[in-house]
Design goal:
The radius of gyration is 32 Å and the shape is elongated. The protein has 19 helices and ten strands. It is 52% helix and 8% strand. The strands form two sheets. An eight-stranded mixed sheet has the order 3-2-1-4-5-6-7-8, sandwiched between helices. Strands 9-10 form a two-stranded antiparallel sheet. It is α/β, with parallel strands linked by helices.
Amino acid sequence: MPDEMSRPLIRGGGERGRSRHLEASVSEPGAPVIGIVGTGDFSRSLARRLVASGYQVVVGSRTPKRSVALFPEEAEVTSQMEAASQADLVFVAVFPEHHSTLVQLKPALAGKTLVDVSNSLQINRDGPSNAEQLADLFPESFVVKGFNTLSAWTLQMGPRDGSRQVFLCSDNHKAKSSVMQLCRRMGFIPVDMGLLSSSLEIENLPLYLFPSWRIPIICTLALFIFFYLYNFTRDVLQPFVTARKSVFYKMPIETVNVTLPSVALVMLALVYVPGLCAAFLQLWWGTKYNRFPDWLDRWLTRRKQLGLCSFLCAVLHAIYSLCLPMRKSARYKLLNEAFKQVKDNAENSWVDEEVWRMELYLSVGIMALGLLSLLAVTSLPSVANTVNWREFSFIQSTLGYCALSVATLHTLLFGWGRAFDSAQYRFCLPPTFVLVLILPMTVLLGRLLLFVPCVAGRLRQIRRGWERSRHIRFTLPNDDCHNGLEDVSNV
């Protein structure tokens, strides 16, 4: 059987004088007639995808003659009443504020399935949803919410170039099943979201703007601003105030390049802090059945975003570092140093300690970036789906801590002996790397503590179901003054 998605969306003109009405040769035998009320961009894309999937399509428009040229030749464009009468299943593709104009179609739509594809202009948390309002307008029809999370572009290009999931919900199981079958035939994957009461959640999905990224991005920007101002104060402002030496040219590249690795290392450490907190809380409670605090729950679910922000800063740091020798200021410094050596008849400027420090520093930095790249690639859904849970956990946990260790070593090699040099404490402020190392070193020490045999053994027992107390208290929300079930069950 040929691939249904390989059919062209818009067929050729065909024979001269060919009718625009439905033909038996266009659709597959036994296929239901699909109606679309509305002639917007989404309606046109939906009609093309349905025609390519072998369905008979009839489009209802208030001005059929003006809209006929916008749809494929296999689709019939007619009045709304005629489309509603012919169709077995109808897509309502009009703005929700215009649903009331369709009330005249109520007799023709009675007993039929209506698919509401509308979205709101803003997030609706109180309800009712557009689909629920449509169900109130057409009580004799069966309303299914779906297809609102797909764009017109995805429908035109097919599911290969967009998301395959279509979220559906309805109070009528038979109507929902028919729409799910239609989804599969179009090449999409239907996801059953339950009753029509879930339609409010489905309608809000396209309106969210990276909800899980908001806190990680704010955290990244806040750390960047803090470390940038800190480096600016030490490296640019201090020479100007104390010696009237203008080095403001460092602000676009050098200051940014010192700031980026600081943010990257702190963000990487923040990825593993919530896991340590969870482990120590379980050890403290002596059970794994207590619910974590809300702030820890949210932190645990955003570790992927924190890690990707860290990876972005690390990559930018590598690019900035490669661009350092390309600056005019670097060339002038190099020429001045060479001229100074010739003038002072310096025999040898080679310092073994500095050479070794730089060699090790760069080598470890490259390894840290490589491990971070592996973590970032593995976090992609297409890659994560190809490995089992143990492999994924090994990469994200074991190799993740290796990346944190190597990145911390990279920072230590950068500092070398500078932390003990009083000249580095400008304005009585410690070097940046001293502040940066506090959190990663704390995380690594906490991880080492969990490796102690007695601690590791107890934590392993807890995560396998062992409890310090044999009494398990089950708590459920209650409308009364009590927070949950009062009593305990002995196991």
